[in-house]
């Protein structure tokens, strides 16, 4: 079998200076054995806090947040999220009525937060609502208005856009308060959040006729791109890019799968190009790792299992989340803005 060149390029990425603080809320109907409401907070895609309606308590998930905030911080987070739980219970019922649904398992989700570029100081607010994994209401941060791609969400988008207090509250939170807390968190977790760990790259294949997977794992931060080259030129056909997944140790993994015939492999030279921050590594493999001898690295299995749990908690389905807020008045002791409520 032809050798396949694995390239890890050290070119600085356009988003290398961008950091993010995001919250994911998920409410589910009572028809499954899962918490009615969960909340997860992430800095640069790494989880730092967690809450669900079973434990009814916000808890730290990293040592850096545990060491830098006191009991008052967690008390405020807990009270805010208890309030959000009650709002979301009502929201999921209203959404079921809107979509004319009376049975089955349904999800009512929200994602919101901010992005800050520490090089250009550019700020972007993020706000997406979703129902059953589909967009419901989204905020256009630049134009400061709500939009909806489904008829059931149009009345809510119009109502919230016309509520000046709602928009001004979110503008203040997303553009100022959220960024201030993000900068605090980055300072708190400087030693871990600002570390750079290069990915380990492998080519995996079940058998000679199976697709070939380029697997990058163990990298931090999460920004990575994986692409394919064919005889030195970019190749985009028959390529399937996998989701970014967390590893158990806080690093990340991602795959890109290329489907080509064995004859195509023999006649051409394919390269998997992985781009990450700050490092350049070139590796040549004489043989693709297969199930016939070399087993799939345990990191893939463990990472995938962790990812499944995390994605369920933060509301999988493309991180499309549902939010219900009105009269937004963030308090100084908490950055999540979850102390507000609204109805559709």
From TrEMBL:
InterPro entries named in the record: Ig-like_dom, Ig-like_dom_sf, Ig-like_fold, Ig/MHC_CS, Ig_C1-set, MHC_class-I_related, MHC_I-like_Ag-recog, MHC_I-like_Ag-recog_sf
Signal sequence, start to end: 1-16
Span of domain Ig-like: 199-289
Entries under SMART domains matching the protein: IGc1
Gene Ontology CC terms, in alphabetical order: external side of plasma membrane; extracellular space
GO biological process, one term: immune response
Pfam families according to UniProt: C1-set, MHC_I
Source domain of life: Eukaryota
Keyword annotations of the record: Glycoprotein, Immunoglobulin domain, Membrane, Signal, Transmembrane, Transmembrane helix
Residue stretches spanning the membrane: 298-322
Homology family: Belongs to the MHC class I family.
Protein name: MHC class I antigen
Species name: Ctenopharyngodon idella (Grass carp)
